[in-house]
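Below is a filled-in request sheet from our internal design queue. Each sheet records the structural input a requester submitted and the sequence that came back. We keep these sheets so that new team members can see what a complete request looks like end to end.

REQUESTER: design group, bay 2
PRIORITY: normal
MODE: inverse folding
CHAIN LENGTH: 136
BACKBONE (tokenized):
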């Protein structure tokens, strides 16, 4: 989301990288592979994002004790401190987005978005790639 990219640029957080932090705020210590799977991005994209966040001091990686080929990703103190800033920026964006909505429209949108999000995060859910190309 371009808005968040611009808002977080000064903090060294690049395009889409705040999504990785948002997941880690709920599941700190998740494997790098599961992180990529949850965000529906390639392992290469995930690796680049995590490397950048690590370089900026927001996360660190540690070998998985159960699988020495894999890494788990953890928030640093700096990463944890970014939580409030990221949520503040998201709330500002949402306020702008919904500024012309009535309270009833906001509630309907919230319910529909929740329903769609639950489907999106179902294990194994993969949107058909040809339909995604039609949207873009």
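RETURNED SEQUENCE:
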């Amino acid at each position: 989301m371009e808005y968040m990219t611009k808002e977080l640029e000064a903090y060294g957080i690049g395009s889409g990288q705040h999504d990785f932090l948002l997941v880690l705020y709920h599941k700190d210590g998740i494997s790098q592979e599961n992180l990529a799977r949850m965000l529906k991005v390639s392992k290469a994209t995930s690796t680049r994002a995590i490397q950048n966040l690590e370089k900026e001091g927001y996360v660190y990686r540690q070998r998985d004790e159960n699988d020495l080929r894999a890494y788990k990703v953890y928030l640093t103190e700096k990463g944890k401190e970014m939580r409030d800033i990221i949520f503040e920026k998201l709330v500002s964006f949402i306020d702008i987005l919904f500024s012309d909505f009535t309270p009833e429209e906001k509630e309907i949108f919230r319910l529909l978005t929740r329903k769609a999000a639950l489907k999106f995060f179902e294990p194994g859910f993969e949107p058909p790639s040809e339909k995604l190309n039609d949207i873009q």
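SHEET NOTES:
- The chain is about 60% helix and 10% strand.
- Strands lie at 30-31, 59-64, 67-75.
FILED BY: M.R.
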